[in-house]
Amino acid sequence: MFPSNDGNINWRKTTSTPLEKARKDPESMKARILTVARRVFGEYGYHGTTTRLIAQRVGIDISTLYYHWGEKGDLYEAVVLDINEDLRQKLKNVELEIHGRPLAERMDISIDRMTDYLFDHPEISNLVLFRYFGKTRPETRLDFRVPEFISDIARSMGLSRDKQAVPVAVKMRVLAIMNAIHNFISGENFFRSLLKIERTEYITWVKATLKFILIPAFDRVEQPPAD
User: Are the C-beta atoms of 65 and 39 separated by less than 8 Å?
Assistant: First the structure.
């Protein structure tokens, strides 16, 4: 509450959302549940996940989960918003690091940083691919999507000066990068079993392969599309 100009007390809303509280206090029960929920939703998707499974993974009873987060849809929405904010901040940090560098160097650094980040948080790639290929939709009150930040990425890479008017051709190229990274991460267990290599070696090869394919393709002199 705050004093007004006439000396009376004005009441302002100071209540934080559960997500804000969880992000503010990473050691809290809300944050613990959110962290586990991200992994479980990423592993099983919305419809394959139950609040009871999340509670078991956290080591709490179901009533404690409901007390902190409410229904499954509420927790799922918080997970998507949490991922949204984490991705936004990560991309912002990468953009600051690569700003002003040549395109090939920007891509080299960006692939390293984003691949490492997404391998550390595979639920992000899994949830993106669930959205692409899932045959059922999350039953949430809001039409949440895992954001792709296509325009932001295009601007960071120097492929478009105006993020409000990114050409379709540029968006498709950004989608090609994202799709390649997400598939390597989400398909890690399957691909590693085919290659018969350990995780550290797999991550190294993923980065090398992405750079081998993508950097020459983006760094070459652009030609106008054929009619």
Answer: no
